[in-house]
Amino acid sequence: MDREMEAVLNNPINSTVLEYLSGLSAHSDISESLGAAVEPLGDVNYLDHISTDFPSEGVFSMSIIFGIAVNMDEIGFRLPPEMKNRALLSGAELFHEAGSEWVKILMFRDDWPEPDLRFWARKAYQFARIER
Question: Which domain holds residue 115?
Fold first, then answer.
């Protein structure tokens, strides 16, 4: 990661998720799903466009990482407490590996409706933009 971007992302909010992402990768279908979910949002930057140190997909705004795509079927979002609880009630799971504010949504589940990734991406994006 270049020094300028490292300085932007090097903050306590991102420390756990950056450590978790180190060395992980994401299936292209998962990365594309995350990309489509954040497409309508404004100021979104991609971790993998900055450095090959992050082959998994991650998105950030205002120096806060708010969404990640990892492995074959996981998309994670960093959410405020009330939205985190709502996400858990609607099928998301705790994502402690990424941090205490994170939930993960398992994709491609036959037994569950398709998740509204744009909704969760928007809530995570809004949280990132007020957290600076």
Answer: 3-130
The pTM of the full predicted model, rounded to 2 decimals, is 0.89
- Number of domains within the chain: 1
CATH number of the domain encompassing residue 81 = 3.90.1150.30
Q: In this predicted model, what pLDDT tens digit does every residue of 69-126 receive, in sequence order?
A: 999 999 999 999 999 999 999 989 999 999 999 999 999 887 777 789 999 999 999 9
Number of H-type helices and E-type strands within the chain: 5, 6
Q: CB under 8 Å, gap of 24 or more: what pairs does 8-16 form?
A: 8/63, 9/60, 9/63, 9/65, 11/63, 11/64, 13/64, 13/65, 13/131, 14/60, 14/63, 14/64, 14/65, 16/97, 16/98, 16/99, 16/100
Q: Are 63 and 9 in contact (CB under 8 A)?
A: yes
Q: Measuring CA to CA, which residue among 84, 88, 68 is closest to residue 14?
A: 68
Q: Which residue has the tokens 């969760």?
A: 120
